[in-house]
Specification:
- The complex is a heterotrimer of chains A (about 270), B (about 250) and C (about 280).
- Chain A has 9 helices and 10 strands.
- Chain A is an alpha/beta fold and about 270 residues long.
- Chain A has helices spanning about 50-60, 100, 105-110, 115-125, 140-155, 170-190, 200-205, 235, 240-265, and strands at about 5-15, 25-35, 40-45, 65-70, 75, 85, 160-165, 190-195, 210-215, 220-225.
- In chain A, strand 4 and strand 5 (about 75) form a beta hairpin.
- With about 250 residues, chain B is mainly α.
- Chain B contains 10 helices and no strands.
- Chain B has helices at about 5-30, 40-55, 55-85, 90-105, 110-120, 120-145, 150-160, 165-200, 205-215, 220-250.
- In chain B, helix 3 packs antiparallel against helix 4, helix 7 packs across helix 8 (about 165-200) and helix 9 packs antiparallel against helix 10.
- The two termini of chain B are about 30 Å apart.
- Chain C has about 280 residues and is an all-alpha fold.
- Chain C folds into 2 domains: about 1-50; about 60-270, Orthogonal Bundle (MetI-like fold), CATH 1.10.3720.10.
- In chain C, helix 3 packs across helix 11 (about 235-265), helix 4 crosses helix 10 (about 225-235) and helix 9 runs parallel beside helix 10 (about 225-235).
- The chains are: A alpha/beta (about 270), B mainly alpha (about 250), C mainly alpha (about 280).
- Chains in contact: A-B, A-C, B-C.
- Chains B and C meet through helix 1, helix 4, helix 5, helix 6 and helix 8 of B and helix 1, helix 2, helix 5, helix 6 and helix 9 of C.
């Protein structure tokens, strides 16, 4: 039986906006979400709906204001050793080589250099960066840097990966290829993945379940189970079922995106 | 939650007033020898006296006019040289790295050479300041022309502009904000070296006042001199920062 | 950002960028310019158009400098100045780093107090030298005070900037990967801030040299600045030039060493980091 890996119960969070004391914005409002072990769940929603905030709360980087969050039944109070995280913005350390970046976590755990090297090599191989071990991030492309960031998270063998639009800054082809690679790695290692994106195709391509969030304050609007067979190659992506799911999710999302748009631009719309 | 600016400015004024108050207190309690450190309240009296005698405005005017004259000559020469170094690329490349190295070295220490050439007078001070301040103006002027957006130059080409038109209507306005950065830096360097050498050589305006007050052991007057220099640089710096913001908004 | 920052901009602009053969040509022109100036100087000096005592020939100056070094006349002065400068840089650097860290990491403190430092930074520090003299006497202590004060500001400003440009995502990632306490500072903050800190240090060293030596020329008993002005006062102009030559050679050398260290330590930035070389 698969027990819950990640669990959020009635989580709320507000932020103060720049410039004004009074303008506080509610980012999340009583969000509850459960992710089973080994499941791939995508969070999708208009910008500013608090998806990233939810991820940071799961990662133990910011506390929830109300409600609580659990990783394998442990209450989250700070970064949990079973959690790995990958961000949209380039998070590789520019002063470390690929190898240095990937082995950072092991170094922090005090592992001996030799053992660190061996394990890093294996993980670098897993993400397909063999041959680039001694390059600095400045010498790598955006997609390669993101693979370094993924390898850096994977090396600690986390049971859950939190990914905040990890392929958001990449071009479409790279994005699809890295998505396939991610699914292959997940098939091998069996992690639970919570994946934030604003790309519906990507969500359907990768996920077992897609969760659509509302505009601010973020709440869960709808959930779609994706039962399409894996691996999701080009034949499946081209299939009618795939297209239908994308259309359904877009219908749910459209209304929220419009609301989000109005919030962001301050336009007066009936 | 950032606080509004007026609270920040208020707090900043409190910090400054607090520091002055602490100074006053320390001197009154004689924790610090009052012969060496005048009380902030006695600065005011000495300041009034020097103002009434007309001494302070006169000295400030001397210093300011030195800076102004240096800037007029140095600024014009710097702009011209910077433009020429842009125009003749090879020479520009070569000499700008030499100038960069010079800028990184303590040129102001060469002032005895200027004393040797011009004598112990204001001419020497201004010549020295000009040499120090002109370098950032030259380098930044050349640099600004080099960094003019290619697209703007193409626009000029498509319009078939003459060389003259190209320079005055495209290159100059496009480079102006960056050129100003160099002018600002050059002016700051001119101010720094003029006051420093006035003080060291004991010639000219405010720097000379401080130098004199030290030898006459006139504590109050010395502090008035120091504070006037501080205020003058502050006004100068504020003005330049404002001006830069204004230039770069265009 | 203050004078310090713009300075590095201008210096960055002074560099030779481009392909190697282009650089070589620029190098040739540089050598020609320097040689031409020296030749001009030498011939003006020999022509007798100006008093030769005011314009000693470069050869005579170099020989005098060599004599000073060889006979060890200059060494005690060099030692005194070096001590003043390094002590000032050490104290000013430490204070500037601590204050810069506080300003950079506490937003309210930074907003209230940083402008005060920013506006004090371009004030000519030499003007309070008489106060240093009163409190610390005409020995090396007053020069240490001057170079401390001078190096404090650029190092403070660049440290505050350095701490602000640390990417929050790097701290997040490091914490997720188990970095805590001291390791977080040594493995993430320090390397992330290194670039700005090194630039600050180089600028701080420059102003420490200037302020110590300038103070020495005003009133001192020893030091390179003192020696220069002694020769000036006794109208031994060739010797005066030779001491200035020694000072400048030393300053350029130090700057070059710092620059080289910067480039080595920041190699990871890739090729564009090398663009602000002089020479």
């Amino acid at each position: 039986m698969r027990g819950p890996m990640l669990e959020a119960n009635y989580v709320s969070k507000t932020f103060g906006l720049d410039g004004a004391l009074a303008a506080r914005v509610q980012a999340l409002s009583e969000v509850s979400l459960t992710v089973a072990q080994g499941e791939f769940v995508s969070l999708i929603g208009p910008s500013g709906c608090g998806k990233s905030t939810l991820l940071k709360i799961f990662g133990g980087l910011t506390p929830a204001e109300q409600g609580e969050v659990y990783v394998r039944g442990d209450r989250v109070t700070g970064p949990h050793p079973h959690i790995g995280m990958v961000f949209q913005e380039d998070s590789t350390f520019p002063w470390r080589t690929t190898l240095g970046n990937v082995e950072f976590g092991l170094e922090m755990r005090g592992m001996a250099r030799r053992e660190r090297r061996d394990r890093s090599k294996a993980t670098i191989d897993l993400v397909g960066l063999t041959g680039f071990e001694h390059r600095y991030p400045a010498e790598l492309s955006g997609g390669m840097r993101q693979r370094v960031a993924i390898a850096r998270a994977l090396i600690l063998e986390p049971q859950a990966l939190l990914m905040d639009e990890p392929f958001g800054a990449l071009d479409e082809q790279t994005r699809i290829i890295l998505g396939e690679q991610l699914l292959r790695i997940q098939g091998k290692l069996g992690q639970t993945i919570l994946f934030v994106t604003h790309n519906i195709n990507e969500a359907v391509q990768l996920s077992d379940r897609v969760v659509v969030m509302t505009a601010r304050p973020g709440q869960i609007k709808a959930t779609f189970n994706i039962t399409l067979p894996k691996p999701r190659d080009s034949r499946i992506i081209a299939s009618e079922a795939f297209g239908r799911l994308v259309a359904q999710i877009w219908t749910a999302l459209r209304e929220e995106s419009l609301k989000g748009f109005v919030q962001a631009t301050g336009a007066q719309v009936e | 939650m950032p606080l509004p600016q007026w609270i920040i400015v208020g707090l900043r004024s409190l910090v400054i007033l607090g520091a002055l108050f602490a100074l006053e207190l320390m001197v009154r309690l004689e924790w610090i020898n009052p012969l060496f450190l005048a009380r902030p309240t006695s600065w005011v009296g000495a300041f009034r006296a020097l103002m009434a005698e007309g001494e302070l405005p006169k000295l400030a005017w001397i210093t300011l006019s030195e800076i102004g004259l240096t800037f007029l000559v140095g600024g014009a020469a710097g702009l011209l040289l910077g433009t020429l170094l842009y125009r003749f690329r090879r020479v520009g490349e070569a000499s700008s790295s030499l100038l960069g190295a010079m800028f990184a070295s303590p040129i102001v220490l060469l002032y005895p050479i200027f004393l040797v050439i011009f004598g112990r007078n204001r001419m020497a001070i201004m010549a020295q300041a000009m040499v120090t301040g002109i370098i950032p103006i030259i380098l930044q002027t050349r640099n600004s022309f080099l960094h003019v957006n290619e697209t703007l130059i193409d626009v000029g080409r498509v319009l078939n502009l003459t060389r003259r038109q190209m320079f005055f209507h495209i290159m100059l306005p496009a480079a102006a904000p960056m050129i100003f950065t160099g002018i600002r830096l050059g002016l700051i360097y001119m101010l720094l070296s003029i006051i420093a050498i006035e003080y060291i050589v004991g010639v000219g305006g405010l720097g000379n006042l401080v130098s004199d007050a030290y030898f006459r052991l006139n504590t109050d007057e010395l502090y008035v001199g120091v504070i006037t220099v501080g205020l003058l640089s502050l006004i100068f710096y504020t003005f330049l920062t404002r001006a830069q913001r204004w230039v770069q908004r265009m | 950002m203050g004078a310090a920052d713009v300075t590095s901009d201008v210096r960055a602009g002074g560099g030779v960028a481009g392909r190697p053969h282009r650089e070589l040509r620029a190098g040739t022109i540089q050598v020609l310019i320097v040689l031409g100036l020296l030749l001009l100087w030498e011939s003006v000096s020999r022509s007798g158009l100006f008093f030769e005592r005011l314009f000693p020939s470069p050869v005579a100056v170099t020989l005098a400098a060599w004599r000073h070094l060889q006979q060890g006349i200059v060494l005690p002065h060099l030692a005194t100045s070096a001590m003043e400068i390094s002590l000032g840089l050490l104290i000013g650097g430490t204070l500037g780093t601590l204050m810069g860290m506080a300003l950079g990491s506490r937003p309210l403190f930074g907003r209230v107090c940083e402008p005060i430092f920013m506006y004090c930074a371009p004030v000519p520090k030499i003007i309070i030298y008489p106060i240093s003299l009163w409190f610390l006497g005409i020995g090396p202590a007053s020069k240490v005070a001057q170079s401390t004060l001078a190096s404090f500001f650029p190092i403070l400003i660049s440290t505050a900037a350095a701490i602000r440009q640390v990417k929050p995502v790097h701290i997040d990632v490091a914490r997720l990967l188990g970095a805590k306490g001291f390791a977080l500072y040594r493995k993430v903050y320090l390397p992330a801030m290194l670039g700005h800190v090194l630039v600050g240090l180089r600028l701080g060293m420059g102003v420490a040299i200037i302020s110590s030596l300038m103070a020495e020329t005003k009133l001192a008993e020893k030091g390179l600045g003192f020696l220069t002005i002694e020769y000036y006062n006794h109208f031994r102009i060739t010797e005066m030039y030779s001491i200035l030559l020694i000072i400048f050679t030393g300053a350029v050398l130090l700057n070059w060493i710092f620059y080289w260290a910067e480039r080595r330590l920041l190699r990871y930035r890739g090729s564009d980091a090398g663009q602000n070389a002089f020479f």
